[in-house]
Amino acid sequence: VFIAQSRASGSHRDVEDEELTRIFVMIPKSYTEEDLREKFKMYGDIEYCSIIKNKTTGESKGLGYVRYLKPSQAARAIEECDRSYRAILAEPKNKSSESFEHDYYSNNTRQESRGNTLPFCGQPEFCNFEKNESRIQESVSKRLSVVSRLPFVQEQLFALFDLVPGLEYCDVQRDPHTNSGYAVIQYSTAASAIYAKYKLHGFEYPPGNRLTVIFLEDGSDSSE
C-alpha cells in the first residue's frame, strides 16, 4: 500500500527507503537472530535481523525487526508469512520505537484475546455481521461499504482499493459528529469486489486499525 501510494503521488524517494524495507514481527521469546533470519530469508535478501531485548535482563521481548534490500521483498514477507508473526511495516527509526513497540504489542495482544470480534462496536450491525459472517449467505454485489474507527484520507483509501483491478469510484463520507471513517467503494465487476472484500476485510490500515468491509446492495442481480 505504501509503495503504491508513493508512486501514485509522484514521490521520488529512494526505493530502498527504510520505511518500505523494514518489517516488525512478533516472535517466540526463544528465537535467536539466526532463527529469525532462517524464517524470513525465503521472501528476499535480508540486510539485517534484530531482536528487541529487555535492557536490564537481556531477555527477548518476543519482538523483532527484519530489514530487506527491496520494498517488494518486505511486502511479500508481510503478505505470505504465517499470521502468528503479526508482520507489519516498521516505524522509521527517527520515531519513538519504544512507544511503537508497546502500542503494537498491546494492540495485537488485545486482538488475540478477543478472537474474531471487532475492536470497535459503535455500529451494532457491523459487529453482528462479523460474528455471523461464516453462517450466513451474503448478498454479493459490486459495491462495498468500508468502515473504520479512524477517519479516511481519500487519496490513501483510493490507493489501497485500487490495488484490486476494476475500481470505479471511492467515495469517502465524513460524519461531523464522530471521528470514524465511512466510504463506499464500487468495482466494475462483482469478482473484483469479492476479491477486495476477501483481502481487505480485517486488514489493519493504518497498523492497529482494522477495516470492516461488507457488500452493499447495488441494484444488480446477485445470483450472477
Automatic annotation (TrEMBL):
Coiled coil: none annotated. The keyword RNA-binding applies. InterPro entries: Nucleotide-bd_a/b_plait_sf, RBD_domain_sf, RBM45_RRM2, RBM45_RRM3, RRM_dom, SLIRP/GR-RBP-like. The keyword RNA-binding applies. It comes from the Eukaryota. PROSITE patterns: RRM (PS50102). Keywords: RNA-binding. Transmembrane segments: none annotated. Gene3D superfamilies: 3.30.70.330. SMART domains: RRM. One of its GO terms (molecular function) is RNA binding. Residues 21-95 form the RRM domain. This is RBM45 protein. The lineage of its organism: Eukaryota, Metazoa, Chordata, Craniata, Vertebrata.
